[in-house]
Batch of 4 targets.
Target 1
Amino acid sequence: TMKGALRESMIWVACGLAFSGVIAYAFGSKAFGEYISGYLIEKSLSVDNVFVWSMLFATLAIPVKYQHRVLFWGILGALAMRAIFIFLGAALISRFWWLLLVFGVFLVFTGLKVIKHRDDEGEKESTRGLGLLRKIIPVSDQLDGQKFLTRINGKRVATPLLGALFVVEITDPVSYTHLRAH
């Protein structure tokens, strides 16, 4: 319910803010400021992703009973991709210092794209993501229960659930990059 979701969200926000007190006590005010800044950035990113996901589920007509499955695997995958990006990026930067310049140019480029905001921005996210997935595997318009893959006429095809999962997976790194560009 909305009331339950609000209560649970408030509990998690309270936990995050309480932990900031631990950071301040253990490591000082500078670490506290860094933690709060990071926390607010991540919270902004999360809220942004929720809107993208709700548009995605509406566009693909994903029933509420399957949305948890898509989000569970999508968030788990997004966390794994973030870890890979962080460790790979750190390893590359420590070996090739000039990559900082490449990453900096990329951030400036994405920042400029964010500044050039369009009225239809965000409407094509699911279409682009599904188009990319369709280059890899055919995507059916029909659900097959909670399956991500199914067989139609003997061919393995993706269901709209896998399409939604794929878009959820690519939404996190894309929005993370755009948010970092600010």
Target 2
Amino acid sequence: LLADPGWTGEALLNILKNSIEHTPPGGEIRIACEDNPLFTRIVIADSGVGIAPEDLPYIFNRFYKGRNAKDDSVGIGLAMAYAIVKKQDGDITVRSERGRGTTFTVTFYKQTI
């Protein structure tokens, strides 16, 4: 993976923090990596409460706080993760189902010559 280690770590920690905060005790968080000649992909999936469908289009917006946000949430963690990944020409997507969990997929494309 050719990426800034500090900023990329910050992005992944923000996603992981979100998963931890929204997964109840006894829940599960899975992290998987895939590396091939075209990209490196990191998938963080949890068995948490999920994100409301009406919140999904906005969760990467700065200062957006979804219906499940903690009272002390500022709404910048996922926006920061999105900006960091995009600045490195990567992609970040999210899938979620209420009551079944959320999956974030981060893809960094490799330079081809």
Target 3
Amino acid sequence: MFMSRIVLQRLPDGRLFPHAFPEETYAAHKVIWSFFPGKPKGTPCPLHRFEAKPSPHFYVVSEDKPNDTSGHWEVKSSGYDPKLTGGDLLEFTVRVNPVVTRRDEQGKHKRHDVVMDAKKALKDAGKEKTELPAPGEIWQKALVAWLRARCAKLGFDFADGDIRVDGYMPTRIYGRKHGTPVQITTVDVHGRLTVADPPAFRKMLFEGIGHAKGFGCGLMLIKRA
């Protein structure tokens, strides 16, 4: 596996590409694919994350080295083979699309944003609007619970107080034909974790967390605490 940092140099019209969450989020998806022209159709999009500052750049985890033929990006790649043991303490950041899946009245599975789901649960419990916790508190509790429900399978553990949630943001994604946009929610989660199952944790680092991986979600960045 390779970990790459791909930094924007220039675009033909002089624009910076793109800001953190533009309406044209699909543009980022297309740029990522441009670095892997030989990938067969139907292959999952390489795991990636876009950052606008200090200059626009991507982090990418992939089986193959990315290659820019446009001359607009500087690509720096290195082998990615984290050496991990049980009990390792790591700092991390990950951008996720946090959803829960429930059956609707017709019995079909539908995905629901976890924050909106938490708000609905509070209202269904009889909470008046004036009684609801502050939005930041709802985000924090909902995202910690979402991560907690997945961490054992993904090979790590954490203390609830070591997790911080930022940037809860609905994002519109326009497809190839710019038809009706699809809306997803992205959240940045930061904190400390303990590696509990090194093989499962490595698998997660290579494959990501949650949904919307083709649109910049799921890549966990780590460093020693």
Target 4
Amino acid sequence: LQKFIFPQKGIIITSILGGLYSSTATTIVLARKSRLNTSSTNQITAGIIIATGMMFLRLLLLAYIFNPALTVYLLPSF
């Protein structure tokens, strides 16, 4: 998806998709990439923040699947 549809938005797309799957793994991969590529540290930092934000959306979705009433209670905190 990243290579063919969004060639210039690689880090952001990686952050969104990776954050949906595992924000921790995405953060580790992006942190390693920042060591090798110092020219795009702003994008990598933004990508780590986006991946962490996607974690919260994933948790909210899981709460909704298992207990919709709990989701309503948690929504203001998120």
